[in-house]
Write a structure and sequence with these properties.
By secondary structure, the protein is an alpha/beta fold. The protein has 15 helices and 15 strands. Strand 2 and strand 3 form a beta hairpin. The longest helix has 29 residues. The N terminus is likely disordered.
Length: about 375
């Protein structure tokens, strides 16, 4: 039985595939949760609204990840619908370093631990009507302050966990390995190095996964500019250098300008962006960078019913990727018929790929690549 499936995993949507025994319902859900963190008045709420296309009903909402490849596939297959990948976004309470009591700090850090990666929103604009809580605008200072809070929280947690495990007289082999990994983390954190930059093996990171270390998460820095700075293409070399040293990518946007773009008719947006020297809205670039910060890639499926992008962690093997669509497909996996997106774009049809010998048959341990278009064969 043959099933042509796409990529996606979006709450509230249902995907299905056709087999010899009828339609198989596919699971629902969001790939991962990205936490928006930053000082008050940095623009977190505005960015959440812009990324999700409207005022969120709470602190968590869903953002779709723009993917130009889907438009190309839609032009080839003319599907009934196109479904991009999506991620959940959670706005975390505004952090004020040095001004929170112990209970507030603990509540904030527990909220952070429920996310999979962090988006640091940093203010770089002046606004007399909304004064900066620190009295002046200094993006590098603010970014450092937030990161230092996370580093200190991780150091305290790592040291506490080390003490607890060291006192245990009946440690398992796994706990011995966890203690060694935590000690390495504590040493690195003591040198003001986030856990994401430490030279830990994949096994060590897996052992640490349940401890909720904040700086182990992927991180992205969103610099919220004023209109003139966006237009002039102003750079912040000190901030960019600091971010690179700490394993963060910097993406600039302007909540003020993005709001104006969102209110324009689609046909006028390109001209408006060009006036600022941009080819796509900052929210698109942020969503794409956030997707990468979460360690996600997309494999694609295409057909008359739907063109879809499915988010999976980088390194996912074909059998597990099939399971993102339905567990029955994973259990009954036979093989995956795979084509590169660029090949399909050039040839223009699945039949043409087959005739040109551009389809590959891959087994269950094949590591899926970003942009793979996959047709799964399986038994149920």
């Amino acid at each position: 039985m043959l099933c042509l499936l796409g990529v996606g995993f979006v709450r509230g949507l249902e995907n299905s595939c056709t087999s010899g025994r009828g339609r198989v319902a596919c699971p629902e859900g969001i790939a991962m949760d990205l936490g928006l963190v930053g000082l008050p008045q940095s623009g977190k709420s505005a960015l959440l609204s812009l990324l999700t296309g409207g005022p969120p009903t709470g602190r968590t909402a869903v953002a779709r990840v723009p993917d130009p490849r889907l438009e190309v596939l839609a032009g080839i297959f003319h599907p009934r619908k196109v479904t991009p990948a999506a991620i959940a976004l959670t706005e975390l309470p505004g952090l004020q370093p040095g001004r929170l009591d112990k209970g507030e700090r603990n509540a904030f850090f527990e909220a952070v631990r429920k996310t999979d990666a962090l988006l640091h929103v940093v203010r770089a604009f002046e606004a007399p009507s909304a004064p900066h809580p620190r009295g002046s605008v200094d993006p590098l200072r603010d970014a450092r302050d937030v990161e230092e809070e996370l580093l200190l929280a991780d150091l305290e947690r790592a040291e506490t966990l080390c003490e607890r495990l060291a006192k245990s007289r009946a440690r398992s082999r796994e706990e011995d390995l966890q203690l060694l990994a935590l000690r390495r983390c504590a040493a690195g954190l003591g040198e003001v190095r986030p856990v994401r930059l430490l030279e830990l093996t994949p096994d060590e990171r897996a052992l640490l996964g349940g401890f909720g270390l904040l700086t182990a998460r992927g991180a992205l820095l969103a610099l919220n500019l004023g209109e003139e700075d966006l237009r002039s293409g102003r750079r912040f070399p000190d901030l960019e250098a600091w971010a690179a040293e700490n394993g963060m990518t910097v993406v600039t946007f302007s909540a003020q300008v993005e709001a104006e773009i969102a209110g324009l008719p689609p046909q006028e947006r390109a001209e408006f962006l060009a006036a600022y020297g941009l080819t796509q809205p900052g929210t698109d670039r942020l969503a794409q960078a956030a997707y990468a910060a979460l360690g996600l890639i997309s494999f694609l499926t295409a057909g008359e019913d739907e063109v879809r992008a499915w988010p999976i962690p980088r390194g996912t093997v074909a059998r597990r990727a099939a399971g993102k669509i339905h567990t029955d497909i994973e259990k009954g996996f036979i093989r995956a018929e795979v084509a590169a997106f660029t090949a399909l774009q050039q040839v223009g049809s699945w039949k043409g790929l087959r005739e040109a010998g551009l389809l590959r048959l891959e087994g269950k341990e094949y590591a899926v690549r970003d942009g793979d278009i996959i047709e799964f064969r399986f038994n149920v």
